[in-house]
Amino acid sequence: MSFSLESAEYRPLDPEGRRLLARALGDTPETAAAVHMLRRGLCEAWVAGPVDRPGAAVVQVCFRPGEPLGWADDSRVLWDVLCCVDGWHCINVSAPLMLAFEDVMRARMECEVHCYGEVYLTLTRPAPWCSSAVVRPLSEDDEAVLERADDELKENAFGSVRRLLAEGCAAAAVVGGRPVGVAQTYALTARHAEIGAITLPSWRNRGFATAAASIVARWAQENGLTPVWSAMEDNHASLRVAEKIGFQEVSRRAYLVPERELPRF
User: Fold this and answer.
1) What is the pLDDT of residues 203-237, one digit of tens each?
2) Per-residue pLDDT reduced to its tens digit, 26-65
3) Which candidate, 130, 96, 93, places its Cα nearest to that of 242?
4) How open is the CA angle 164-36-117, to the nearest 5 degrees?
5) Alpha-carbon distance 231 to 12, whole Å?
6) Taking a C-beta distance cutoff of 8 angstroms, is the pair 198, 171 a contact?
7) Are 234 and 214 within 8 A, CB to CB?
8) Which terminus of the chain has a lower count of CB atoms within 10 Å, N or C?
9) Are 142 and 128 in contact (CB under 8 A)?
10) Which helix (H) or strand (E) holds 43?
């Protein structure tokens, strides 16, 4: 993304502005989630300068308002934009911006700032078949099945379970008619499909996440998309699942959390 500091105007974006920002961010593993949310109206966004060449941009996902995503070349401009955003407790930034923005946050907030790394991975070889007797792909006819899942398994970035199953892909470990683990497309762009997976604590370490995520990864590749995976650098379980499927690290971002806030990852 190419930034310009020609304007010092910081403003929230209307739907057309969000579409323009999605184009300005580009289609990369790191931007896939933000671009998806911008195009579907599932976020708020603010920029400094022209929206097609912003000096800084902040995207606040509606169902995760405390963890906005930020982009900029100048950390001071990003801070000014972030000050327009309510309800945040941390910010996610690119690795090159991390140290400079950490210094700005520490100085402006007068507190210590903690950094939590996030790893981005992609799958460029064919997704493997990872079999499980209870894991299967979900179709549009499975809307009621997914609706019966625990709340922590139902969060999706399509606005509804129906839209997720119609426009994206999900697979689940179904036991007794209820999902105990789900993998799904968390974001879709022209080039990428970001995958999210979660298994209920009492059902972990049985290979459910690997089997379900491999189904979603194959769906993405069959539709001409590169599967993307992201996880906190200390989330070893998630990174092991990605490794089993064949994902490889391509970049990193980081969450910067002021000491007076509690990390919520």
Assistant:
1) 999 999 999 999 999 999 999 999 999 999 999 99
2) 999 999 999 999 999 999 999 998 999 999 999 999 999 9
3) 130
4) 105
5) 29
6) no
7) no
8) C
9) no
10) strand 43-48
Token representation of residue 12: 């929230």
Looking at residue 161, its pLDDT comes to: 94
Residue with tokens 């790191």: 30
H helices of the chain, where? 15-25, 32-40, 75-82, 95-109, 143-147, 151-154, 161-167, 208-222, 236-245
Which residue, among 258, 245, 263, 240, has the nearest Cα to 119 in the 3D structure?
240
- For 45-76, letters b (16+ CB in 10 Å) and e give bbbbbebebbbbbbbbbeebeebbbbbbbbbe
Among 180, 176, 245, smallest CA distance to 215 is for 245
Rounded (5°) CA angle 31-147-127: 45
User: Could you tell me if 48 and 10 are in contact, meaning their C-beta atoms sit under 8 angstroms apart?
Assistant: yes
Residue of 85, 27, 33 whose CA lies nearest to 57? 85
Joined tokens for residue 9: 């105007």
DSSP letter string, 129-179? P---TTEEEE-GGGHHHHHTS-HHHH--SSSSHHHHHHHS-EEEEEETTEE
Amino acid at 156: N
Integer Cα distance of 133 and 131 in angstroms: 7
Per-residue tokens: 38: 């911008």
- The DSSP bridge partners found for residue 169 are none
What CA–CA distance (Å, rounded) separates 201 from 62?
26
Q: Tell me 184's DSSP state.
A: E
Cβ pair 259, 114 in contact under 8 A: yes
**pTM for the predicted model, two decimal places:** 0.92
